[in-house]
Amino acid sequence: MNTSPCTLPVPATWAGAVARFETVLRAAGRRETTIATRLRHVRQLARALADTPPDQVTSDQLLTWAGAQRWQPETRHAYYVSIRLLYVALDLRPSPADALPPISRPVPPPRPTPEAVYRRALADADERTRAILTLAGAAGLRRSEIVQVNIRDLIDDLTATSLVVHAKGGRDRLIPLTDELTALIRTMCATSPEGWAFPSRDGGHITPRWAARLASRVLPPGWSLHTLRHRFATTAYAADRDLLAVQRLLGHTSVATTQRYTAPPDNAMRQALNAAA
């Protein structure tokens, strides 16, 4: 039996509210990956508070449920955003979600996948997984962006090829490709009638979670597609120290976010110290 959080039934007391929430998210033009995440969050809440309709949930109930969860700060923040958006969609005032406290999210240092780890994973991977690793480590794509790569997104100009990257929040961007990346994408898309680089057996493309799982089979524990994005950011920044260019390549709305991805070159701090001596 399938017991995935995305497929378990929603209690009847919450079904209408969850359906309304999905309608509002789609009307707002949210990406499918965003919609799936938000719905997964509120479905979990719905099953936990199945005996209480959403318009009768109290602040104490929400706080008790949330306080019992063993979430990391980023995960907790994401759940709280989903719950607040649910009550906005339901237009319920006052909202019990107003009692959810703001979450302090510590900023971790950049954690690029070491070059030896990256190269070993590429060597151990099959063709599909190697392409997934490469698009994260050499092009800086998120896992949700990798799985959406399609031959239609390649744009040729007079000198090179660029890729339309379908980013989260509908913020698509255009990134230049090397000849090697262009050839890789064309090869991966060649076998799919629909042009997907990573087609699914059920039609369309594979899911971001499946891409991450494939990568985890060849990456050691502690390293992931996300740390490969850090690897890309760090190597791209080391090339000419242009943080704005790296920001645009990664699709960040803030340079401050990009700074959290880019570890300074090994000799940068020593050079700065020597210059000040």
From TrEMBL:
InterPro entries: CB, DNA_brk_join_enz, Integrase-like_cat_sf, Integrase_catalytic, Tyrosine_recombinase_XerCD. It comes from the Bacteria. One of its GO terms (molecular function) is DNA binding. Residues 107-274 form the Tyr recombinase domain. Residues 12-91 form the Core-binding (CB) domain. This is Tyrosine-type recombinase/integrase. One of its GO terms (biological process) is DNA recombination. Keywords: DNA recombination, DNA-binding.
